Amino acid sequence: MERAQTVERALLLLTAFSEDEPEMTVAELTRRLKLSRTIVVRLLDTLAAAGFLERSARDGRYRIGLAAFKLGSLYAATNPLHTYVSNELARLASETGYTAYVGVLDQAEVVIISHHEGRLPVRFVWTAGDRLPAATTALGKAMLAHLETQQLDAILGTDQIRGLTERSLATRADLDRQLAEIRERGWAVAQDESAVGITAVGAAVLNGNGAPLCGLSLSFLDYPHDPARFSDLGSLVHQAAQRATERVTYYERYGHRAVTTSSKRRSRFIAT
Amino acid sequence: MERAQTVERALLLLTAFSEDEPEMTVAELTRRLKLSRTIVVRLLDTLAAAGFLERSARDGRYRIGLAAFKLGSLYAATNPLHTYVSNELARLASETGYTAYVGVLDQAEVVIISHHEGRLPVRFVWTAGDRLPAATTALGKAMLAHLETQQLDAILGTDQIRGLTERSLATRADLDRQLAEIRERGWAVAQDESAVGITAVGAAVLNGNGAPLCGLSLSFLDYPHDPARFSDLGSLVHQAAQRATERVTYYERYGHRAVTTSSKRRSRFIAT
User: Fold this and answer.
1) Which of 1.10.10.10, 1.20.1540.10, 3.40.50.1370, 3.90.1310.10 would CATH assign to domain B2-69?
2) Cβ-contact A144, A205 below 8 angstroms
3) What is the rounded distance in angstroms from the CA atom of residue A21 to the CA atom of residue B78?
4) Cα–Cα distance between A52 and B11 in angstroms, integer?
């Protein structure tokens, strides 16, 4: 119990750093964590010795270190989910020329895990580690559509929701109307809701119990004025998410080795 | 002392995961860390509760979690080094059409931090988090050229060095000859040494004491047969690394705010 608490404190210390406060002094961290200076210094020394923190040569402030980066890269490279999904990202980008994303839900936010760049001269808007309010993104809305009302209440509240642009949804009631459509159709749209000028279509990858594991999306600068084309893109993403769902379900049942050692057998299994 | 040891164990547990072993059972981790099962379970529970580890729905194996990914992304997004270097990456990629990389030295290896994709249809070879023997890469060799002999001995040994292809340098003596040339010229070359068909030129970004902080490189599939063009690319990367070095040195002296609040004043300072 005592031991776990020390580790908890070390993890709190690490997660105290943010894009807004990437560097902090011992005094700032001591205030933030409401712990004694002695304890904080001991934790900092331990984390810095292992490379999870580094010290600025200039003023001795602490910041996140290379060991944390390596660990984070390992998540993106080895999580079975993303391994199976990355093929779908590449396929979506190649079939459409647009940039394809995968992201996961973290409370009311979406964290972008990776993207596959399209051929078209579309700018990158989001990159790995970026966080956005889930209800402003197509992949976020697609995942929210697979949560129970109780879960939605817990993470988004029941009144106003956080937006990023004038076109972002403003209330739970607006969102709920869209979620009902998304459940029916299988894919979500976000137009100018996280960034003006950017449209995206997204769909959710589910586990065996129907809970959302991650979301896939395609984003593009030009809104396709042809409704048929728009719905084609949505269906493409939906199909990709369904294929990924089948693979993940298979993985959950039969494991990683079974999937990777015989891709022939796997694809036959999934097809039936 | 007791406290720091528990944190050390938790960090060892996190870094026990790798691309080869992305998922492990309690038993495997207990064996690996040579600790009691009770201690390992307590650490795993603490790390999983904070999101640094997650459990497979299938068999309860542990793997790296989203919190680690978020922390790693923060390193890439906020490290002042990479902030200053990322402009140079974009400029190198835009001026040449080739893919530009930034990486750091981690003992005898280089860890790729980020890349900026070029316009040309060149394939990605390395991506964030990838690790390569430093002496097989242009940016790695450029950084090694700024270490003392004693440091090189400590991280690479004095005899055989690790390679990846038939063209990789095989011995410290081979490497030392190249490092002497790199010191003279300011930039390094690696041709077919980390991957067959890939050539790269690289240069090191230094701190105020002349120690290598990171390396920049440009990689391309086609070897420029025109020696003048080849040396132009090397000079471009060298100049980019020198500009980044000036910015980092300025940052170390005057801090982050001074740099970002008045970019006009900064560029005037750097120009003189």
Assistant:
1) 1.10.10.10
2) no
3) 9
4) 9
User: At residue A1, does pLDDT exceed 60?
Assistant: no
**pLDDT attached to residue A73:** 87
How many Cβ atoms from other residues are within 10 Å of residue A142's Cβ?
A: 35
CATH number of B79-271: 3.30.450.40
Name every residue whose Cβ is closer than 8 Å to that of residue A261 and which is 6 or more positions away in sequence.
Answer: none
**B79 is written with which tokens?**
């490290």
Residue B269's SS3 state is helix
Q: Summarize the confidence of residues B156-170 as an average pLDDT.
A: 94
Tell me the mean pLDDT in the region A210-224: 85
Residue spans in chain B of domains classed CATH 3.30.450.40: 79-271
Instruction: Identify the band that residue A141 occupies on the pLDDT scale cut at 50, 70 and 90.
Output: very high
Q: Which of B12, B57, B66 sits opposite A207 (nearest CB)?
A: B57
A227 pLDDT band, cuts 50/70/90, is: confident
Task: Print the SS3 string covering A13-32.
Answer: HHHCCCCCCCCECHHHHHHH
Q: Answer for the pair B216, B202: CB distance below 8 angstroms, yes or no.
A: yes
β-pair type (A188-191, A199-206): antiparallel
Chain A residues with beta carbon closer than 8 angstroms to that of B79 = 22, 63-64
Q: Is A74 within 8 Å of B64 when comparing Cβ atoms?
A: yes
pLDDT band at A68 (very low <50, low <70, confident <90, very high): very high
Interface of A with B in 233-262 (CB under 8 A): 251-253, 255-256
A122 touches B: beta carbon within 8 Å: no
Question: Chain B residue closest to A42 (CA)?
Answer: B4
Q: For the segment B12-61, what is each residue's pLDDT rounded down to a tens digit? A: 999 999 988 999 999 999 999 999 999 999 999 999 999 999 998 778 89
Q: Would you call B77 and A251 a contact, using CB atoms and an 8 Å cutoff?
A: no
Residue A270 pLDDT exceeds 50: no
**For the purposes of burial, counting CB atoms within 10 Å of the CB of B102, is it exposed (0-12), middle (13-18) or buried (19 or more)?**
buried
Q: Cβ B78–A19 below 8 Å, yes or no? A: yes
Q: Could you give the 3-state DSSP secondary structure of residue B103?
A: strand
- Is the predicted ipTM greater than 0.90, yes or no? no
pLDDT in tens, A107-132: 999 999 888 887 776 666 787 888 99
Q: In this model, does residue B120 exceed pLDDT 90?
A: no
CB contact under 8 A, A104 and B66: yes
User: Is A112:B73 a contact under the CB 8 Å cutoff?
Assistant: no
Does B181 score more than 80 pLDDT? yes
Task: Answer whether residue B267 shows pLDDT above 50.
Answer: no
Q: Which residues of chain A does CATH 1.10.10.10 include?
A: 2-69
Chain B residues within an 8 Å CB radius of A80:
22-23, 56, 63
